[in-house]
Amino acid sequence: MTLVVYGKGGVGKSTMCAHLAMCFAREGRKVLLLGCDPKADTSLRLLGGKRPPTIVDMVTGLKGYRFQELAVRSRPGLDILETGGPQPGQGCGGRSVATLCQYLEEHARELSGYDTLIFDVLGDLVCGGFVAPLRFGFGRDVYIVSSEETASLFAANNIVRVAAEPYLQGVSVGGIIFNLRQNDARREVLEAFAARLGVPIAAVMLRDPAILDAEEDGVTVFDHKPGKRAAGRFAALAASIAARRGAVPGAKVRPMSSEEFQSFVRENRVSRPGPVCAGKKRNRA
Ligand SMILES: Nc1ncnc2c1ncn2[C@@H]1O[C@H](COP(=O)(O)OP(=O)(O)OP(=O)(O)O)[C@@H](O)[C@H]1O
Ligand SMILES: [Mg+2]
Question: How far does the centroid of ligand 1 lie from the alpha carbon of residue 267, in Å?
């Protein structure tokens, strides 16, 4: 199983990827989590906040790391490989992702030791490098992380647009994971959005302070007592993804043009908040 996870910056991609990777590893799968972001932030919750060496360190430093040194073990059954990236203001992050894919192609034997790959990819698909995991044929199932906010939905629509490109034959959209900013966001808008694009909703994940707390301790909610409820939600998401319920071939999704997206936002009043029930606090998970 290979998941390629996209979404707007800061929407919760690395949070989802790290927790899904944990879920799959706990079930006995052999997971390789691939951070495809110059910030190399995928591993933060899985290595106690330590930064592992990256593919870009290897290429630029010519240090000749071996695969085993780059794919750092988080726990039994879960290794993490970070791509890294150029210094801010220099080079191209997307190109680093293409370098990662080349590296993976050259290490097919080591890769065959894993049964589950998860790519955590920066959402800027304007740069072709970020499509590399799909172009190289590593990933088939695209998952999109989005909040209920307009800018995030805009990025989600763009990702669906890429998945529909004929040159990416064989790619499917596994679903949208709505990771809410506000737990009282209007669900009917999210449902209308997914239905308009013709993609399933993989899950609606609640904002939960335990996730942030765990992150500050450099762990996932599975190793954090107050995170018990969030852990249950991640486990349910992992089970639904493993069952691959409702994945839609790229040829069948229906991305919106920019004008259609704008009409959708206007007609659905996307930024209007949901009703806050009297006496209830927002974002109680
Ligand atoms: N459901 C949630 N509840 C509470 N906090 C969350 C939730 N999801 C994500 N966060 C927090 O939001 C912040 C951003 O999440 P994350 O780093 O996963 O986003 P990202 O999409 O990977 O960002 P980037 O594009 O910068 O890599 C983190 O501090 C994370 O702990
Ligand atoms: Mg991230």
Answer: 29
